[in-house]
Structure formats: C-alpha cells, structure tokens
Design goal:
The chain is an alpha/beta fold and 594 residues long. The chain folds into 4 domains: 89 residues, Arginyl tRNA synthetase N-terminal domain (Gyrase A, domain 2); 173 residues, Rossmann fold; 93 residues, no CATH class; 126 residues, Isoleucyl-tRNA Synthetase, Domain 1 (Orthogonal Bundle), CATH 1.10.730.10. Helices cover 49% and strands 12% of the residues. The protein contains 24 helices and 15 strands. The chain has a 5-stranded parallel beta sheet, sandwiched between helices. A 4-stranded antiparallel beta sheet has the order 1-2-4-3. Strands 8-9-10 form a 3-stranded antiparallel beta sheet. β3 and β4 form a beta hairpin. α8 packs across α11, α14 packs across α15 and α22 runs antiparallel to α23. The protein is globular. 41% of the residues are buried. It binds one RNA strand of 77 nucleotides through β10, α14, α19 and α23.
Length: 594
RNA sequence: GUCUCCGUAGCUCAGCCGGAUAGAGCACCAGAUUCCUAAUCUGGGGGCCGUGGGUUCGAAUCCCGCCGGGGACACCA
C-alpha cells in the first residue's frame, strides 16, 4: 500500500480516463502524471492528463480536461478542480486528504515513505571496492557514502538489496603490495639493504612506500622471525616468502579498511574476493560461455587516436565483441603475459552476481573509470541474454577538500594525503555523510571542512539536525505539561485546527516524502534526500519563526488543548520524516543541541 | 582525435526520462528583536538557464552543431 497521495490521485485520474475513453492505449495512460504544484493557486496537484490523451480523441485538451474534471468532482477526496493554461487539470484535494498524512506518518514512524515500487526485485549495489593496498582516503569516502545511501534508498523504495564490496586481490597491485610489505619486514628484522637497493631488485620498482605498511612488516617479523629472509637479512627467493607476505598484507589492509568503514558507518552484506573467483575458474568459465556465443575472437586493435602510448605496438589479443552491444571498440580479455585482464575478471564477477539472482546491478565508481562503463554494460547485456538483468553505473566525481578557504593538496609524496580517518576525526561521521550527499554524485564537489562543522544555516547538516532537535524539544516540553505525546495518541488527534499556510506548507512537504523516495530511487540519486530534508527543515523553521510574531502559531497553546494536540501531531510527524530521511543517508538524528 | 561529465543570479549549487511566472543558501539593500532554543528572523532587488539550430501544444530539461572547463582513452585496477 502506498502512502504517495500523488500516486493515489493519479489512479483516480487514470480511472476517469478509462471510464470516459476506454479505448485509450496503455502507452498513453503510462504518460499521465499527477504532480505537486509549484504555486498553491494551482491547487494541491496538477495533471497533464488532457494534454497527453486528448490528441488521440481528437478533442481540444481543455474540453477533455473538463470531462475528466467532472468525474473527479464526484470523488469525495476531491474538493474542486480547475482547467488552466493549455489544458492542465488542477486538483484541489479535500483538506482531509492532506491532514490524513499526519496519522499515516504517526502510525508508521520512520518507516513512512517506504514504497512497494521495487516489488522486491533483487538489486546488488557494489561500492567502495577500494584496492586492499592501503588505507581509505577521501576519494573512496564519497563512493562509500553515495553507495551506502543509494542502497538504503533502493531498500526503502521496495527493492531487495544486497550491499557488496569486491576485494581486488588478484591483480598486479597485490603483487606490488607484497613486495612493499616484504621491505617493511626486512626493515623490521634489521636488514643492511637501503630502500633504494631493495627497490632496484623489485620487479618494476617498489610502489606503496607509505608508512602504513610498517605494522605489516613488524607482524611478519613477530610471527616468522627471520625465516622469510636469507641469513644476511637480504631478500630471499620469493617462493619462500611471497604467499605468506601477501596473505598477511592483504589481511591487515582489509582489516584496516573494514575499521575505516565501521567508523563511517558503512556495512556490507557481502565481501567478494576477485582471487577466489579466479581460483574457482569463474573467469575461464565465463570466457568459454562467451566463446560459445561467438563473442570472442583474436584480433589486433587499432592504436588509440591522438597521443600514442610510448610503448604501443600492434599485438594480437583475445577480444570481446563489445561493439555488438553498444561499445565503441572490442575489448581485450588477456594481457600480453597471458593472464586475464581486470575486465575479464569483472565480467565473471558480474556473471556471478546475476547467478546469485541480481536483476539490477548498480556499480558505484570513481569518475576516472567512466571510460569503462560502456564495456561493462556491453558484457552484462551479452551475458544477461533473455533475462531482464542490467547494469547501472553511478559515477562519483572528484572531491576537493577545503580548509580555511584553502585547497588541501592531496599528494602522497608531499605527505598531505588525507585519509578517511583524518577526515572523520576532524568533522565527524554524520557531517561527513550528510555533506557528501549535498551534491549530485557526478558533479565535482568542494568539501569545505569549516562549513561542514559550522553551526549556521549555511550548513545543511546543522540546519536539518537543528530542526529535528527543535521538534524533540517541543515534544519534551509538552510531555512536561502532562500532554500525551505518544504517536498512538497523536494519531487520533483532531487536526481540523491546522490551517495556517505555514502549517499547510509543512504538511504538504511531509506528504511529498513517499514520492521523493520513489523518484530518487528511480534516478539512483540519493543526494535528493539531502535537499528534501533541507527544504523540510526550512519549512519547519519558518513555522517556528512565525510563532514569534503570531502566538497562535506556537505549538504549545496552554488555553487550547485540542489545538495543541494537533500542532504536536504535526511536530512529531515532522521529526519522524526527518529521521526517516536521515536513516536513508545513514546519519543519526540528534535529540538536543544546546 | 574519440568518448564522457559539466556550463543556471555576483558566488556555491538545486531543478533535467518535456509542463504553467526557473528555485535555495551566501553576498547586497530595507526592516524586526521582552518569544516553545536568536545557534537570528521578515521582506526586497538580482537571470538571453554557455551559444546556434531542431523536435512539439509546450524545452533549463530531449536531439544535432559550436564555444569553454574537468575526466577517460591496448597490454593498470
């Protein structure tokens, strides 16, 4: 059952069309919309029904709108209707329709806004998937917050959601990690090698020189003594130490990442290991399947246009026919050394998700992976075949961090690299999460540390939290006056005294929450929640401030217990919707701000 | 060179699978202050929605070209 009053009225309108013009095709019915009006003079909601349908009936839109209006006027939920502009049908709902939103909220509490839109379709949201080669930094943070909020949003919209993290533990980066960790081990047991001497012996030179690997070296030294090195404490044959060091480094890196995720309040239903998939033969099996479908061949790619990579040379490769599924070029599955490309493993991984029942896969990636979207979607399309499964990709743009008006440089070399943990310590989990959702994910963001912790209206986190705290403050004050503030009781309140425009505006906003959840979920845009809450908070603060000049708008009316109950019902419902929204964002509401 | 994202008020940004007079905060201007939380509030000015075409009842929104900015472009993940 939906609480979305716009959906309910849309059904009234569609029913009216079916009654008047039963031959109207489904395709036109689907285009009928009932949406909130911007201007209250246009009613509570407006429909494009006549503009969409009248053409097929060879009627003027205004004429058809009038016919629909006549049917709607017989509906007790409809107060009145008007035909306006080019043929909009404006609907003034009976006041009880709007007021009925409050007991709905009070009965459902934070669950209000939940939708059946998703129809329990299985959705897999994959995000973060940071390489286990170091601590999480700010770039990962945005993806983590966006992915987590999006997953919560999809769940709220009625999808059956799995939150998933892919551990990229199979590629060359993990080899480099092992070599780097081994250096820290040699240091821990007191090698005479210098870092540069060691690096010269590492294939490709040593990467990952950050100090965060020192504890890995110490752990290895503690567990294995000098048994992983030669007697002279120089690097031994990798066959002696490699597996041990890699396992230790991976496990400690993942532990650190999970700790960071805990601090951020991000929890996954499942961690998948790329290495496990490969060892299981998933990649080979997927390539076989694609081969059987005739989608694999050996060929040579054209060199990329523009600036040519220095070491480019024509080379025959195993290619996937991505161009058959909308990609620009076919894509390689094997590296020149014969091992699988990351793309090949990722295809297998997405096949695995589909095999586990995912109908909608959503991957949250950094924008630097944007060029990878169409090939992954092509592969998904190829493997999905007749099933409806498909892949959506949400890209997260760069986050620039500002402090004191200055850009904080993100350079590993300069040592000004901001980890997620640093940011959380400085700003706090809730402000980090909320602020990360104050921009569309595919737009670049300046994260202003000063603003994120400021206690002014400019800071949406504060403004929304403050609205909630004020609601709770009123409810506490009411309880002290022996007023029953339980939701069960308030849901029974007589609400007819609520009629000031500021009160009605607030109620209308609350009524829009279920619709917002559905639309944000369809658009895969969790940032809309943050904007909604900011506007909701604005409506509430506005009503509060009106109470300064007009004492009849204050929530606690000593002389009017019935009016007080109605107002408190509104306050309690407002707090519930704020909590409902914050829960999707993964932000904790505050009870009091003093 | 190709692909992709972005371009909306002085600034930072919403709105974008077509809807009516394009919104918010900051800044600016003018007022308010014995009050459930002044951690301010109310009101006002401010816009060829980058640009030129197209699609149609209707375009900030969809399509094409151009201008300007970010990002990505075999064998990394």
């Amino acid at each position: 059952m939906s609480n979305n009053i716009y959906t309910i009225f849309r059904n009234y309108v569609v029913d009216a069309v079916k009654q008047i013009a039963p031959q109207t095709p489904q395709s036109l019915l689907a285009k009928i919309d009932v949406s909130p009006t911007k201007d209250p003079a246009h009613g509570d909601m407006a429909s494009n029904v006549a503009l969409v349908v009248s053409g097929s009936l060879k009627l003027a839109p205004k004429v058809f709108a009038a016919q629909i209006a006549e049917v709607l006027n017989a509906n007790p939920a409809v107060l009145s209707t008007a035909v306006a502009g080019p043929g909009f049908l404006n609907i003034f709902a009976h006041k009880s329709v709007l007021l009925a939103v409050l007991p709905d909220i009070l009965r459902e509490h934070e669950a209000y806004g939940a939708s059946t839109l998703g129809n329990r379709v299985v959705v897999n949201v994959e995000y973060v998937s940071a390489n286990p080669t170091g601590p999480m930094h700010i770039g990962h943070c945005r993806g983590a917050v966006v992915g987590d909020a999006l997953a919560n949003l999809m769940a709220k919209a009625g999808y059956s959601v799995t939150k998933e993290y892919l551990i990229n533990d199979a590629g060359g980066q993990v080899i480099a990690l092992a070599w780097a960790a081994y250096w820290r081990y040699l240091e821990a047991i007191g090698t005479s090698l210098t870092e540069e001497e060691y690096s010269a012996r590492v294939p490709g030179g040593m990467q990952y020189r950050g100090e965060y690997l020192i504890p890995v070296g110490e752990k290895l030294a503690a567990d294995h003594g000098q048994s992983l090195a030669t007697a002279t404490k120089e690097n031994a044959d990798p066959s002696i130490w490699f597996e041990t060091v890699r396992e230790c480094a991976l496990s400690m890196m993942m532990t650190g990442i999970r700790e960071d995720l805990d601090l951020l309040g991000v929890y996954f239903d499942r961690f998948s290991s790329e290495r496990d998939l490969v060892l299981k033969g998933a990649t080979d099996a997927t390539i076989e399947k694609l081969t059987a479908m005739g989608l694999i061949y050996n060929g040579t790619l054209e060199p990329p246009k523009g600036k040519l990579p220095d070491d480019w040379e024509p080379r025959e490769q195993m290619l996937f026919r991505a161009t058959q599924f909308g990609d620009d070029v076919d894509r390689p599955l094997r590296k020149s050394d014969g091992s699988n490309t990351y793309f090949a493993n990722d295809i297998a991984y997405h096949a695995d998700k589909m095999a586990r029942g995912a109908e909608i896969m959503i991957d949250v990636w950094g924008a630097d992976h944007g060029g990878y979207v169409s090939r992954m979607q092509a592969a998904t399309k190829a493997l999905a075949g007749e099933s409806k499964a498909h892949l959506d990709v949400v890209l997260c743009q760069i986050v620039k961090v500002l402090k004191g008006g200055e850009l904080v440089r993100m350079s590993k070399r300069a040592g000004t690299f901001i980890t997620l943990r640093d940011l959380l310590e400085e700003v706090g989990r809730d402000a980090v999460r909320f602020t990360m959702l104050t921009r569309k994910s595919d737009a670049q963001m300046d994260f202003d540390i000063d603003q994120a912790i400021a206690q002014t209206r400019e800071n949406p986190v504060f403004y929304v939290q403050y609205a909630h705290a004020r609601c709770r403050s009123v409810l506490r004050a009411a309880a002290e006056q022996q007023i029953d503030t339980s939701a069960e009781s308030l849901a029974q309140a007589d609400l007819s005294s609520l009629e000031n425009e500021a009160e009605i505006a607030l109620i209308r906003r609350l009524a829009g929450w279920p619709r917002l959840v559905e639309q944000a979920a369809l658009a895969r845009e969790p940032h809309r929640i943050a904007f909604f809450l900011y506007e909701l908070a604005g409506d509430f603060h506005m009503l509060w401030n009106r109470g300064r000049d007009d004492s009849t708008l204050r929530f606690l009316q000593a002389e009017h217990p019935a009016a007080t109950r109605a107002k408190i019902a509104l306050v309690s419902a407002t707090a519930m919707v704020i909590r409902s929204g914050l829960a999707v964002m993964g932000v904790a509401p505050v009870e009091e701000m003093r």
